Amino acid sequence: MERAFRQRQLHARCVDVFMNRDTAPLAAGHEVISVSVNADLDADTLRALAEGGTRMIAQRATGFNNIALDTAAELGMTVARVSYYSPFAVAEFAWALAMAVNRRVVRAARRTREFDFRLDGLMGRDMHGRTVGVVGTGKIGEAFTRIAHGFGMNLLGWDVAENPACVELGMRYVELPRLLADADLLSLHVPLLPDTHHLIDGPALRSMKDDALLVNSSRGGLIDTEALVEELRQGRFSGVGLDVYEAESGLFFHDKSLDVVQDDVLARLMTFSNVLVTSHQAYYTSDAVGQIVDTTVSNVEDYLAGRTSANVLTAPGQPPAVPR
């Protein structure tokens, strides 16, 4: 990131911390800051940043649920995001999670490292001919659907609007309860908004098949994790693959291997042999990161030049946008 800014003749100071109300003073005197999606830009943090002279926030992510956009608009701050980067990075990783939990890859790898080559407990299922439920069929959901089509799966979708490309692949759009009840594999690809928080709650989880696979590579808050743990305790679900967790802030992207675990829900989740948790890495390919960096730098250049783009969420004189 720093190299990219320098190549565009922009001075950058890189600090290895996540932005929040405690670290906001570090940004004092900097008109522009660039943050990750794990920054906590609540109202208090934004006010502290504004008092320090920050006028523009360039978020290196598509999601923006961590930013109090109304407060940013009140303060006259410009907020921009990366509205697009390789959808294949996330879609492919979602499928990596699905196949890993379906075919018990992690368990098998642990065994063979100890020269245990038994097949006990490693049986999976063919994806061909089974039903996938895709919640959210935007760019990432479409890429995920194309892979599912390649497996020869029955395609069900749910979204606020149908994606013609998915329909062309044979996807049938249904109401969410029907999708949850019929899906052998459920994959989440919607943004985290007030309407989607805990979209997959206790009743939704209980409506799913006992042997379904559940994958979330979008945002942790889409799933009520405590409810998920309770269902797993009942022996439900063939496999669960999570690249995100609703309380991941302060945990993910840090080394906590020597710390005492304070998050009882996450600790319990980790005990289930059919659950695979990864560290919000679905986006992490050279292709996607390169696009994120280029777009972030362009967003900063646009701000400095007084230009706007579809990446801008708030700007002086305009209400906060609510993009999908």
UniProtKB/TrEMBL annotation:
Residues 11-313 form the D-isomer specific 2-hydroxyacid dehydrogenase catalytic domain. Gene3D superfamilies: NAD(P)-binding Rossmann-like Domain. Keywords: NAD, Oxidoreductase. The keyword NAD applies. The lineage of its organism: Bacteria, Bacillati, Actinomycetota, Actinomycetes, Kitasatosporales. It comes from the Bacteria. It holds the Pfam family 2-Hacid_dh_C. Belongs to the D-isomer specific 2-hydroxyacid dehydrogenase family. The keyword Iron-sulfur does not apply. Residues 96-282 form the D-isomer specific 2-hydroxyacid dehydrogenase NAD-binding domain. It comes from Streptomyces albiaxialis. This is 2-hydroxyacid dehydrogenase.
